[in-house]
Design goal:
Length: about 190
Amino acid sequence: MCSLRARCPPMSALSSHHHRLRWLAGAALSLAVFFALYTSAALAADPMRASDWKSIKQVIAAQRAALISGDGEKAFGYATPAIRAQFGDPDIFMAMVQIQYSALLTARYTEFLQGAVIDGLIIQPLRLVDADNSVRVALYTMEKQKGGAWRISGCRIGPSTTQAAYSLTEWRTPAPRSPAIRSIASSNRFA
């Protein structure tokens, strides 16, 4: 080791290069270990099982079906006790949904996205595609009740930022096949 008074010999370019490579390899290894531990800790902290997510999606789908059919009592029953206390009455709840959450009622296509637990909140996104092809995302917050049932504790709908590429009829309807293709496909013969 060099003292402050003594002059240190300069490192050769090769040993300096090896020193930097060793340092970079050590830093990369440290980052890899950190991310591995962080990811495993995050996964271990997530108490949700696949069956929980399935139940959550069923509750949201059932409430949406009840909302669309106009069954306020049934739709109101999928809300947490705090939400039910806030509105007090299924008719008031339905009126609020029709005014503030009309996209839930009018969406021509829905798709559940990957749910997440963020700071202890259980969030289940639902993609909504309106008749005009505008896309919205409803973010449901969920709570597990003492009896084990999942209930909806809130919902926020994000504004439309994109358009769907195709209408459902365009997407699901296959292109017409030419007669030559049909005859080859149905003949079971290969040339």
